[in-house]
Amino acid sequence: MTANSPRMTLRTVGNKVPEVTVWFWIVKVLATTVGETFADFLNDTLGLGLSATSIAMTVLLVVVLAAQFRSRTYRPPLYWLTVVLISVVGTLLTDNLSDNLGVPLPVSTAVFAVLLAVTFTVWRRREGTLSIHAVDTGSREGFYWAAILFTFALGTAAGDLIAEQVGLGYLASVGLFALAIAVVALARYGFRANAVGTFWAAYVLTRPLGASLGDLLSQDRSDGGLGLGTTGTSLLFLVVIAAIVVHLTRSRVDRPVLRGHDA
Length: 263
Fold this sequence. Notes:
- By secondary structure, this protein is mostly helical.
- Helix content is 72%, strand content 2%.
- It is built from 8 helices and 2 strands.
- It has a two-stranded antiparallel sheet with strand order 1-2.
- It is globular, with a radius of gyration of 18 Å.
- The chain starts with 6 loop residues before the first strand and ends with a strand.
């Protein structure tokens, strides 16, 4: 079959993305939460400021992302470090638009939604699939990480929009996004909806879920949070992420497997 065929067989050895297991979603939510709290920790708690924090984290992301591209196989520590850093940078991207440039949250939410849609459209047309079981070329990996960045930026903007500007609050926002993810899961496993489409829908929704959860845990009680602070929340979640990544590295339970995939 050609690369543009709706179904194809994957050469597992080249795939750079982990198998989607329960561990995948756990670490994803933890990483999205850290993206929110660690950005606030550097910016506000340490007092680095938004611009300095953005520059430092972007440079670090570029270095780690280059290492990820050079790697020939999926390596849990490198992959998840990239996800955590891109989560932080995605948060900072939205914060810069809102705080430094004064872009309203509805506008930034719409902009990132369009950018994500364009990324998916170009990716699908050029590569013939959006499946994460086929991230086995440099081009596909480039599209993959671009999509990840836009999902994080979009999720941050959407989470802040719902929780703060609309006034739903952090706890209610966590419940809302968790319910939306449950609906996607029901569509996939109850009604056999498209695997690729439901994966990306859930991936997008876990970002505002994690952002709202991070704000709920870290923000002051007077602001609707639990008052744990950005330092404690970030440290706790980073330790848990590290422990899970060690487990994944040793057990290899999320190694890519040979399979066909849907477009």
